[in-house]
Amino acid sequence: QKEVEQDPGPLSVPEGAIVSLNCTYSNSAFQYFMWYRQYSRKGPELLMYTYSSGNKEDGRFTAQVDKSSKYISLFIRDSQPSDSATYLCAMSGPLNSGGYQKVTFGIGTKLQVIP
Amino acid sequence: NAGVTQTPKFRVLKTGQSMTLLCAQDMNHEYMYWYRQDPGMGLRLIHYSVGEGTTAKGEVPDGYNVSRLKKQNFLLGLESAAPSQTSVYFCASSYNLPLDEQYFGPGTRLTVT
Description:
A: mainly beta, five-stranded antiparallel β-sheet, globular, B: 113 residues
């Protein structure tokens, strides 16, 4: 079983729809939760970052973490064609002896927003 | 401010050939990372560096070597390329603590035939 599970999609939605993207994880040591957005043939860029259970909003984006269920979500309101990208969840756990906190990425969900 | 740049953008190698991928960042970041991204596998850490002159193994280090002689540069070497190393390689950097945002480069698409 992978530490982080993410449905690869693709997910197609009409412009203006609310999008829900999800990841589950098995490692209870994960403390920090991130969402990256990756446009085609580009590097990932950090979208949102949270370390506690609950919701965090940033504009049209809401990140939700439920540590008891080991489940995280990203909601996109009023989706736009420019939101079409692959969304990667990422999680990190305690520092190792080398001073590094490993980041484990999901495989990404490909989202297409149709105009 | 160019951020993180990678050279080359594309490369085709024959099995057994060697090459070096160059990553450069102009943000004065301490931490640098090399990842590979494969379909269905996500991003996997190859090697990382927590500062100039230091390197450490990540999740999938076999077949790769790295060097960080200068703070702004992180080199990834393939000594004897294998078809299994066909992938997209991303370099990233972060300022200080490993939890700081990682800034990714545009990637290098490598095909080994």
